[in-house]
Amino acid sequence: MYTLYHHPADPFSRKVRLVLAEKGLEFTTKTEEPWKYRPEFLAMNPAGEVPVLEEPDGHILCGHHPICEYIDEITSRPLFGAYARDKAEVRRLCDWFDDKFFHEVTYYLAGEKIMKRLTGGVPDSDAIRAGKTNLAGHMNYMEWLLKQRNWLAGEAFSMADFAAAAQFSVLDYLGEVPWDKTENGLPAFEETKNWYARVKSRPSFRPVLADRITGVIAAPHYGDLDF
Amino acid sequence: MYTLYHHPADPFSRKVRLVLAEKGLEFTTKTEEPWKYRPEFLAMNPAGEVPVLEEPDGHILCGHHPICEYIDEITSRPLFGAYARDKAEVRRLCDWFDDKFFHEVTYYLAGEKIMKRLTGGVPDSDAIRAGKTNLAGHMNYMEWLLKQRNWLAGEAFSMADFAAAAQFSVLDYLGEVPWDKTENGLPAFEETKNWYARVKSRPSFRPVLADRITGVIAAPHYGDLDF
After folding, report:
1. Which stretches in chain A have pLDDT values below 70?
2. Yes or no, beta carbons of A59 and B85 under 8 Å apart
3. Which of B55, B70, B102 has the most A C-beta neighbours within 10 Å, making it the best mutation to test the interface with A?
4. Is the CB of residue A73 less than 8 Å away from at least one CB of chain B?
5. What is the architecture of the domain spanning B2-74?
6. What is the CA radius of gyration of chain A?
7. H-helix or E-strand containing B40?
8. Contacts made by residues A141-148, CB under 8 angstroms, sequence distance 24+
């Protein structure tokens, strides 16, 4: 049995939970509040960040990126792609969502609306506005990609889809993703909406849709497969 | 022949140059100034960032992390480690230096002292002070690691050493690394100094030590193997 130290509001913990579930590995979760700097947790991960994975023999793995690559390596049906060029494209888009999207969108929106609430700060409306603007820019790029491809990194479902969906799931919990229909009766970001509906319907996504973050109310449609 | 679009002041471009040279792949470099948003460059990498690698057949790869993993996969003598747990430790430390160290140290010091000069901004002394303080904290962690290990991620030289050395090489260009001896006649960060001397002496490091950034003078000891 694996043990995952995580936080339900953390998109990177969500990504690891999705991968563990997708790969059929049994695991329990322990909620960690990294901003409390618990000494036993810092001894496991000197970076002081979730997620941390404890393997059945007690071996400790730190960091969402090394953990996801590790799980992919020790199991079958690779999520990072089968060939070196496919992998480069999957990893390019993982970095896009883990780094660029996170810093330009999730960090602003979830940072202001969740983390400030949990740690006792005051949300900054300029940061929230910047996050919303950047989200629309990223969704335009996703529309462009998804018009040419079945999934974000190509024809096959990959780690890039989990990386993106983990970020989206936190924003969607807050009701911050613009899924609304426009005047023509279609969603403004139709390809992205269809893509997220397909990711949401995977069995591995169910526990994430059941998440509730203490003190932060989920948007009404958050758990719906038809939204 | 590979073509690398890079910038000499960018630590991530340096990391890719080190890996290409270490693996013996022939490449030419083209200097890109990403802050100019050249349309042909944006068409290659929609993130607008260096490094970008063009393969001999014209195939384009974007992003330091996917490029390094890719080069490691298509060549022999893996820099990411031979076994899954070794890889997880190498990748943990690559992320440490690529993300954490970069944002806490290099971004402040090189951002204020190089990028602001190249792009016409005014250096912020608070940011420079924060970078110096954070650098000492990181070097304490490196001392602790290197007392237990031959190289940063274990007994074998790995991508983690290149990730760290690429950041250090930019800071050392600026004379910002505290190599000085203390009252006891030994360097304050003796293990880290010995480690950097060993990395510097690799043939693959020579072109980086020959780098000169237009408009920014290199520290006198920058190219010395004995510093």
Report:
1. none
2. yes
3. B70
4. yes
5. 3-Layer(aba) Sandwich (3.40)
6. 17
7. helix B39-44
8. A141/B46, A142/A189, A142/A191, A142/A192, A142/A195, A143/A189, A143/A190, A143/A191, A143/A192, A146/A191, A146/A192, A146/A194, A146/A195, A147/A191
Which CATH class name applies to B84-209?
mainly alpha
**Residue of A59, A63, A92 with shortest CB distance to B92:** A63
ipTM of the complex: 0.89
Contact A73 B61 (CB under 8 A): no
Token digits of residue A112: 């202001």
Distance CA B20, CA B68 (A): 9
Q: Taking the CB of residue B226, how many other CB atoms lie within 10 A of it?
A: 7
Strands (E), chain B: 2-6, 27-31, 52-54, 60-62
Instruction: Write the single-letter amino acid at B141.
Output: Y
Q: Are B18 and B166 in contact (CB under 8 A)?
A: yes
Taking contacts as CB-CB distances below 8 angstroms, the residues of chain A near B67 are: 88
Which residues of chain A are within 8 Å of residue B87 when distances are taken between CB atoms?
66, 69-70, 73
Which DSSP symbol is given to A62? E
Going by the DSSP 8-state scheme, the letter that residue B187 receives in this structure is B
> In whole angstroms, how far apart are CA A11 and each of B66, B84, B85, B140?
21, 24, 24, 30
Q: Do A92 and B46 touch (CB under 8 A)?
A: no
DSSP state, residue A80: S
How confident is the model at residue B119, as a pLDDT?
87
* Distance of alpha carbon B175 from alpha carbon A103, whole angstroms: 30
Task: Report the chain A residue with the minimal C-alpha distance to residue B64.
Answer: A92
Query: Among A61, A87, A95, whose Cβ lies nearest the Cβ of B73?
Result: A87
Q: How far apart are CA A16 and CA A54, in angstroms?
A: 12
Q: Does the beta-carbon distance from A91 to B141 stay under 8 Å?
A: no
**DSSP class of B218:** P
How far apart are the C-alpha atoms of A208 and A161, rounded to whole Å? 15
Contacts of B62 in chain A (CB under 8 A): 92
Cβ pair B92:A62 closer than 8 A:
yes
Give the neighbor-by-neighbor strand order of the sheet with B60-62: B27-31, B2-6, B52-54, B60-62
Supply the pLDDT for residue B85: 96
* pLDDT tier for residue B209 given thresholds of 50, 70 and 90: very high
Question: Residue A219: what pLDDT?
Answer: 96
Check if B227 contacts A (Cβ < 8 Å). Answer: no
Residue with tokens 């390596």: A73
Domain boundaries, chain B: 2-74, 84-209
